[in-house]
Amino acid sequence: MPKHDQPKLKKVSVNLPFGIGGTEWEADATERRAAWSLFVELVTRVTIQPLEAKQDQGLLREALASLHSLFATTREILKAAGPDIGASHQSVGGIAITVLNRGLRPFLAKWHPLLQAWEAQRPANVSPKEHEKNWSHQVQLRSELELLRQDLEQYAVALSVIAGVDYYYKYE
């Protein structure tokens, strides 16, 4: 069914992270489905879960791998949805692309090579978790991961609004 023949949702208004700001438009069924797919991928990964330094939770490598995997997943969802989801800031496609390029890409470009260099120095008799714990940048990375997580949570809320589903997540 052509995009102009699809029923429209009432106008959606969302606030977005990474300097995107607020936007408002009428999301159609194709955008709603794409937003739902992106939402499910985002909220079911470690990317939206806190890795608190004081609690020594999780591996930093796993968090970065999960973030990196969002690139391939997002690409597949956008390609499957087709051009009807758009590429402007008032479209699911444009929002998703901007989140990848303004939010995730700079973060991963900074931290992936630093962590990789540290991992390459791990002695055979030291576990990956112990080695990460001994890294001088691990507290800073965990702190920046928390800030990124908060932005990704805001993105998840926006996707839920676009998809037309209720979502409230508060990590206690």
Strand order of the largest sheet: 1-2
State the share of residues found in helices, binned by percent.
55-70%
pLDDT averaged residue by residue = 87
Main sheet properties:
2 strands, antiparallel
Helix and strand succession? Answer: EEHHHHH
Strand proportion, as a percent range, falls in: 5-15%
Rg, alpha carbons: 18 Å
Report the count of strand segments: 2
Unreliable stretches (pLDDT < 50, length at least 5) are 1-6
How far apart the termini lie comes to 44 Å
Shape: elongated
Tell me the layout of helices and strands.
Layout: E1 8-16, E2 21-28, H1 29-43, H2 60-81, H3 92-119, H4 128-133, H5 138-163
Antiparallel strand pairs: 1-2
Helix pairs in contact: 1-2, 1-5, 2-3, 3-5
Task: Give keywords.
single chain, 172 residues, two-stranded antiparallel sheet, 5 helices, 2 strands, disordered N terminus
